[in-house]
Amino acid sequence: MNRFGHSILSTVLCLFAIAVAASSARAQELDTEETIPNRYVKDYVFLSAIPLEVQYGETKDLLETKTIGFGVKYAHRLESEWVVGLGFKRKPMIAKDNDRPISLLNFSTQTQKIFRLYHPLYLLLGTEISFVMPAQKSSPPFVKDPDFATEVAAGINASLWWLTSRKGAVELHLSRWKGTKTNKLQGLEVSVGYGIGF
Q: pLDDT of 33-58, one tens digit each?
Protein backbone atom coordinates (compact mmCIF):
# COMPACT_ATOMS: atom_id res chain seq x y z
CA MET A 1 0.00 0.00 0.00
CA ASN A 2 1.12 3.58 -0.64
CA ARG A 3 -0.27 7.10 -0.81
CA PHE A 4 -2.27 6.25 -3.95
CA GLY A 5 -3.96 3.36 -2.17
CA HIS A 6 -2.50 0.34 -3.94
CA SER A 7 0.79 -0.87 -5.37
CA ILE A 8 -0.90 -1.99 -8.61
CA LEU A 9 -2.01 1.58 -9.29
CA SER A 10 1.55 2.84 -8.82
CA THR A 11 2.82 0.19 -11.24
CA VAL A 12 0.24 1.15 -13.87
CA LEU A 13 1.05 4.85 -13.47
CA CYS A 14 4.77 4.09 -13.88
CA LEU A 15 4.07 2.12 -17.07
CA PHE A 16 2.04 5.02 -18.45
CA ALA A 17 4.87 7.42 -17.55
CA ILE A 18 7.33 5.20 -19.46
CA ALA A 19 4.96 5.15 -22.43
CA VAL A 20 4.78 8.96 -22.37
CA ALA A 21 8.57 9.18 -22.26
CA ALA A 22 8.83 6.78 -25.18
CA SER A 23 6.35 8.81 -27.20
CA SER A 24 8.20 12.07 -26.49
CA ALA A 25 11.36 10.47 -27.90
CA ARG A 26 9.57 10.44 -31.24
CA ALA A 27 8.60 14.13 -30.94
CA GLN A 28 10.98 15.36 -33.67
CA GLU A 29 9.71 12.69 -36.01
CA LEU A 30 6.13 13.84 -35.44
CA ASP A 31 6.74 17.60 -35.57
CA THR A 32 4.92 17.97 -38.86
CA GLU A 33 2.01 15.72 -37.88
CA GLU A 34 -1.04 16.37 -35.75
CA THR A 35 -1.45 14.37 -32.54
CA ILE A 36 -4.59 12.89 -34.06
CA PRO A 37 -4.89 13.66 -37.79
CA ASN A 38 -7.48 16.32 -38.63
CA ARG A 39 -9.33 13.95 -40.94
CA TYR A 40 -10.50 12.03 -37.84
CA VAL A 41 -13.71 13.18 -36.17
CA LYS A 42 -13.53 15.32 -33.03
CA ASP A 43 -16.72 14.16 -31.29
CA TYR A 44 -17.40 10.69 -29.89
CA VAL A 45 -20.10 8.99 -27.88
CA PHE A 46 -18.63 6.11 -25.88
CA LEU A 47 -20.62 3.19 -24.49
CA SER A 48 -18.63 1.30 -21.88
CA ALA A 49 -18.73 -1.63 -19.49
CA ILE A 50 -17.10 -1.46 -16.05
CA PRO A 51 -15.91 -5.00 -15.30
CA LEU A 52 -13.68 -3.99 -12.38
CA GLU A 53 -14.30 -1.60 -9.47
CA VAL A 54 -11.89 -1.98 -6.55
CA GLN A 55 -12.91 -0.34 -3.27
CA TYR A 56 -10.43 1.44 -0.97
CA GLY A 57 -10.40 2.76 2.59
CA GLU A 58 -13.70 2.59 4.46
CA THR A 59 -15.44 1.64 1.21
CA LYS A 60 -13.92 -1.85 1.41
CA ASP A 61 -15.81 -2.48 4.66
CA LEU A 62 -19.09 -0.98 3.46
CA LEU A 63 -19.60 -1.96 -0.19
CA GLU A 64 -18.72 -4.72 -2.61
CA THR A 65 -19.16 -5.07 -6.36
CA LYS A 66 -21.40 -7.90 -7.51
CA THR A 67 -21.95 -7.24 -11.19
CA ILE A 68 -20.68 -5.22 -14.15
CA GLY A 69 -21.51 -1.53 -14.34
CA PHE A 70 -22.05 0.53 -17.46
CA GLY A 71 -21.44 4.05 -18.65
CA VAL A 72 -21.99 6.51 -21.47
CA LYS A 73 -19.69 9.43 -22.26
CA TYR A 74 -19.51 12.29 -24.74
CA ALA A 75 -15.92 13.27 -25.62
CA HIS A 76 -14.84 16.28 -27.68
CA ARG A 77 -11.31 16.78 -28.99
CA LEU A 78 -10.12 20.39 -28.74
CA GLU A 79 -7.80 21.12 -31.65
CA SER A 80 -5.47 18.10 -31.48
CA GLU A 81 -3.99 17.78 -27.98
CA TRP A 82 -6.84 17.87 -25.46
CA VAL A 83 -10.08 15.97 -24.90
CA VAL A 84 -12.93 17.12 -22.65
CA GLY A 85 -15.84 14.90 -21.75
CA LEU A 86 -19.12 14.55 -19.89
CA GLY A 87 -20.22 11.16 -18.65
CA PHE A 88 -22.69 9.11 -16.66
CA LYS A 89 -21.91 5.78 -14.99
CA ARG A 90 -24.02 3.34 -13.02
CA LYS A 91 -22.08 1.08 -10.66
CA PRO A 92 -24.15 -1.63 -8.93
CA MET A 93 -22.96 -2.44 -5.41
CA ILE A 94 -24.08 -4.45 -2.39
CA ALA A 95 -24.05 -2.98 1.13
CA LYS A 96 -22.14 -5.49 3.27
CA ASP A 97 -24.08 -4.88 6.48
CA ASN A 98 -27.46 -6.09 5.20
CA ASP A 99 -26.89 -7.24 1.59
CA ARG A 100 -29.13 -4.53 0.13
CA PRO A 101 -28.44 -3.27 -3.40
CA ILE A 102 -27.02 0.21 -3.92
CA SER A 103 -26.21 1.93 -7.19
CA LEU A 104 -23.48 4.54 -7.35
CA LEU A 105 -24.69 7.04 -9.93
CA ASN A 106 -21.74 9.01 -11.21
CA PHE A 107 -22.04 12.22 -13.25
CA SER A 108 -18.58 13.39 -14.29
CA THR A 109 -16.54 15.84 -16.32
CA GLN A 110 -13.07 14.93 -17.59
CA THR A 111 -10.10 16.71 -19.11
CA GLN A 112 -7.32 14.67 -20.73
CA LYS A 113 -4.16 15.43 -22.69
CA ILE A 114 -3.46 13.28 -25.74
CA PHE A 115 -0.07 11.63 -26.32
CA ARG A 116 0.57 9.88 -29.61
CA LEU A 117 2.24 6.52 -28.99
CA TYR A 118 2.07 5.11 -32.50
CA HIS A 119 -0.84 5.82 -34.80
CA PRO A 120 -3.55 4.58 -34.32
CA LEU A 121 -2.70 4.06 -30.59
CA TYR A 122 -2.97 7.07 -28.26
CA LEU A 123 -2.49 7.61 -24.53
CA LEU A 124 -4.67 10.12 -22.66
CA LEU A 125 -3.86 11.35 -19.14
CA GLY A 126 -5.97 13.70 -17.08
CA THR A 127 -8.24 14.56 -14.19
CA GLU A 128 -11.93 14.29 -13.44
CA ILE A 129 -14.53 15.82 -11.15
CA SER A 130 -17.65 13.77 -10.37
CA PHE A 131 -20.94 14.07 -8.53
CA VAL A 132 -21.56 10.68 -6.90
CA MET A 133 -25.04 9.79 -5.67
CA PRO A 134 -25.56 6.50 -3.80
CA ALA A 135 -29.09 5.52 -4.84
CA GLN A 136 -31.47 2.82 -3.62
CA LYS A 137 -32.30 1.95 -7.21
CA SER A 138 -30.78 2.64 -10.59
CA SER A 139 -33.88 3.77 -12.47
CA PRO A 140 -35.72 7.12 -12.18
CA PRO A 141 -36.93 8.55 -9.93
CA PHE A 142 -33.61 8.27 -8.11
CA VAL A 143 -33.86 7.97 -4.33
CA LYS A 144 -30.72 8.61 -2.30
CA ASP A 145 -29.63 5.87 0.07
CA PRO A 146 -29.97 7.18 3.66
CA ASP A 147 -26.71 5.62 4.88
CA PHE A 148 -24.48 7.40 2.36
CA ALA A 149 -24.05 11.07 1.52
CA THR A 150 -23.85 12.42 -2.00
CA GLU A 151 -20.29 13.49 -2.69
CA VAL A 152 -18.19 15.49 -5.07
CA ALA A 153 -15.28 13.25 -6.05
CA ALA A 154 -11.93 14.11 -7.59
CA GLY A 155 -9.73 11.72 -9.50
CA ILE A 156 -6.93 11.05 -11.93
CA ASN A 157 -7.39 8.94 -15.03
CA ALA A 158 -5.63 7.35 -17.95
CA SER A 159 -7.01 5.99 -21.21
CA LEU A 160 -5.72 4.11 -24.21
CA TRP A 161 -7.50 4.87 -27.47
CA TRP A 162 -7.19 2.58 -30.49
CA LEU A 163 -8.65 4.40 -33.49
CA THR A 164 -10.31 1.67 -35.53
CA SER A 165 -11.41 4.09 -38.27
CA ARG A 166 -12.00 7.79 -38.80
CA LYS A 167 -15.24 7.45 -36.85
CA GLY A 168 -14.51 4.68 -34.35
CA ALA A 169 -12.34 4.17 -31.26
CA VAL A 170 -11.84 1.43 -28.68
CA GLU A 171 -11.07 2.77 -25.18
CA LEU A 172 -9.44 1.16 -22.15
CA HIS A 173 -9.98 3.53 -19.21
CA LEU A 174 -8.46 3.53 -15.71
CA SER A 175 -9.65 5.94 -13.00
CA ARG A 176 -8.64 6.39 -9.34
CA TRP A 177 -11.25 8.53 -7.59
CA LYS A 178 -12.15 9.63 -4.06
CA GLY A 179 -15.02 11.54 -2.49
CA THR A 180 -14.05 14.88 -0.98
CA LYS A 181 -16.53 14.88 1.92
CA THR A 182 -15.90 11.49 3.61
CA ASN A 183 -13.79 8.36 3.15
CA LYS A 184 -16.86 6.20 2.49
CA LEU A 185 -16.73 6.48 -1.29
CA GLN A 186 -13.50 5.86 -3.18
CA GLY A 187 -12.18 3.34 -5.64
CA LEU A 188 -10.22 2.27 -8.68
CA GLU A 189 -12.29 1.72 -11.81
CA VAL A 190 -11.39 -0.06 -15.03
CA SER A 191 -13.72 0.21 -18.02
CA VAL A 192 -13.71 -0.85 -21.66
CA GLY A 193 -15.76 0.93 -24.27
CA TYR A 194 -16.34 1.72 -27.92
CA GLY A 195 -16.74 5.25 -29.25
CA ILE A 196 -18.80 6.20 -32.28
CA GLY A 197 -17.67 9.41 -33.94
CA PHE A 198 -19.80 12.03 -35.63
A: 568 888 899 999 999 999 999 999 88
Please state whether beta strands 186-197 and 43-55 pair in parallel, antiparallel, or not at all (unpaired).
antiparallel
Helix/strand/coil (H/E/C) assignment for every residue in 31-42: CCCCCCCCCCCC
Domain positions in the chain are: 7-197
Residue type, 71: G
Cα distances (Å, whole numbers) of residue 48 to 72, 79, 117: 6, 25, 23
Q: Each residue of 136-166: pLDDT tens digit?
A: 877 778 888 888 899 999 999 999 999 999 9
Question: Global pTM?
Answer: 0.79
Q: Was domain 7-197 assigned CATH 2.40.160.20?
A: yes
15: phi then psi, degrees, rounded to nearest 5: -65, -40
Sign of CA dihedral 132, 137, 140, 141: negative
- Angle at the Cα of 156 from the Cα atoms of 133 and 82, rounded to 5 degrees: 110
Q: Quick one: which of 163, 155, 159 has its CA closest to 172?
A: 159
The DSSP code for 21 is H
Which of these, 28, 44, 35, 197, lies nearest to 110 by C-alpha position? 44
CA distance 162 to 66: 29
Rounded CA separation 148/136 (Å): 10
Angle at 12 between CA 67 and CA 71, to 5 degrees: 35
